[in-house]
Specification:
globular, alpha/beta, 5-stranded mixed sheet, 33% helix, 15 strands, 30% strand
Amino acid sequence: MVNRFKSLFPKNTNGVGIELAPDRINIAKLRKRGQGFKLASFLSVPVPEGIYEDGLIYDPPALAELIQSTLAENKIKAQRVATAVPGKDSLVRLIPLPAELDDQELREMVLNHEAGLYLPYPREEADVDYQKLGYFVDEDGIEKVQVLLVATRKEITDTYIDTFQQAGLQVDVLEINSFALLRTIREQLRQFPPQEAAVLVDIEFDNTEIAIIVDGVPQFTRTVPIGTYQLQSALLRAMNLPPSRDIQTLQDLTIPIANDDDREARLGGINPGMAAMLRVLGELADEMRRSLDFYLSQSENLEVVQILLAGPGGGIGQLDEFFRQRMNLPAVQIDPVGALALEVEEEKITPAQRPGLGIVLGLGMREI
């Protein structure tokens, strides 16, 4: 069986990273510059409604034309690209297997046996990849190898690959959004020892991906249907304004923070739009808490020490302080440009764009 899930852990190649989102396409090309990176090209163009929604490509020809015309108009030559599928349509699992298996035996067991045990749909409908992470001794004193299993539906990977082919591009790397983001912030993740976990909260356009990261590896992932669009819609609706896919209004906001614990009183003292948005953020905080409680109930000797806020919604003013108060955990807003010490001309990326570039920069890194 041919695996069309273009390897999540491929060899280095040349090309660009292209991130698909419901509201826009982000394109980045990085170059190595000394010990760091330089942003050679960056583009962000709006996607018309109905072409790409909820992580699915509904109009491949239209999306292919948009990708092709954007590259051509900006004189970016590319044959191979890296792109990613949303985590909500993917399966990520850590599985322990016998350490004595050789590479071929391990491959056969993971792809043809273990994958079928975890998939919520038939094995033949999935594209599967895996990575051997390392060895450990289990509670019974038996040596095991830890394997990271990743899978998504063939119909999704096929649609992505075919769309880029229509644009005249070869998908050289196809991975999961969160993997690209983790690549961007890997230096920050190295500050946490193996017994400490960080919660990565990636607030995208129409959902938020919550991942619990231990030793740089996602141990638990969950997608919540609350994103920047839902936050801004609540804000605009309460102010009797029409909905908009342009989230600039949201990104320009600063959340009011009070020191008292009377949340309802605090909401009553601000405008209706902000109060409505804060209620939606409160729902997101509740979902984060449920995710943490579920994971920690199954994990021993593990402490969650920090929340990492990423994505287009991760940079909202004082969002870190909002979650610190609601979750009683330190929270940090990630700046992907700063995380990579990326050399960039200021006019190429606005301050409002920076928080949402973790995925596309991670894809660009993979293509260096």
